[in-house]
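debug: dumping io for the single-chain case to check the tokenizer round-trip. Nothing else runs in this session.
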Amino acid sequence: MATLREIRDRISSVKSTQQITKAMKMVAAAKLRKAQEHILAFRPYSFEMRNLIAHLSARSPDVSGIPLLERRPMQKVLTVVVTADRGLCGAFNHNIIRQAAQRVTELSTSEVSLYFAGRKGLEYFQHRDYTIQGRQINFFNHLKFADAVQLSDELATLYINKEFDRIEIIYNEFKSAIRQNVVVEQFLPFVPDEELLETKNRVDFIYEPDKETILNSLIPKHLHVQIWRILLESNAAEQGARMTAMESATDNADELIGHLTLYYNRSRQAAITKEISEIVGGAEALKED
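debug: decoded output
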């Protein structure tokens, strides 16, 4: 049975932990507001950019002069795993890691390599039997558009050099502070939406210069934009998951403090009762003497 001092020390320890989790919740909430504003403001531009490229590529049956649209037999696949650089965000990283492992199993007929954006995914897979192509870690605390450009250009170079026949990205899509969706998205080659392909003959434009030149100019910019959107999505989802996890931890600490306090009071009452009983017993023994 724990002594009263040990119980007091544990209550003090839990209270200190509660202060930390409460502070982390407040920090995550502040970061979430900024991240949410950024992703909600950027999504419309990102989607319109994607629609523009889809519109152009749907009207270009000959893509031989556009390397980033060239489709090849899927022999080598690169899966980009976007996780957080830190933990303490609930199941955020676990869900991505589980989906990535499942995806590798699904692509067993192809040669699959992994590329990591974020440290937690790398920490899990680097000690296991997986082929690691590259990494870009420890940048989410100071996320910049240049990070998206660097990652996008590296992936595009790998595809143009025919080191991989398909590149896809696994990330957490931000829905709300308590909800994130794990998304597996094809990054390269770019594939237009089926709806645009069906309506490609309804309207067309005059292009200056030609479509091929425009696509070769726009697609790299489009890839920068899409990677930036994915990083913003993941960052907002991470902050939401961390805020929720820290709120839950704070509530659990409060509940634990209540149980420990009750246990302490009962133990203290039992100790006092025992001491009184011993005193009364001693007094009765003296009377008998």
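debug: round-trip ok. Residues 4-21+248-288 form one domain.
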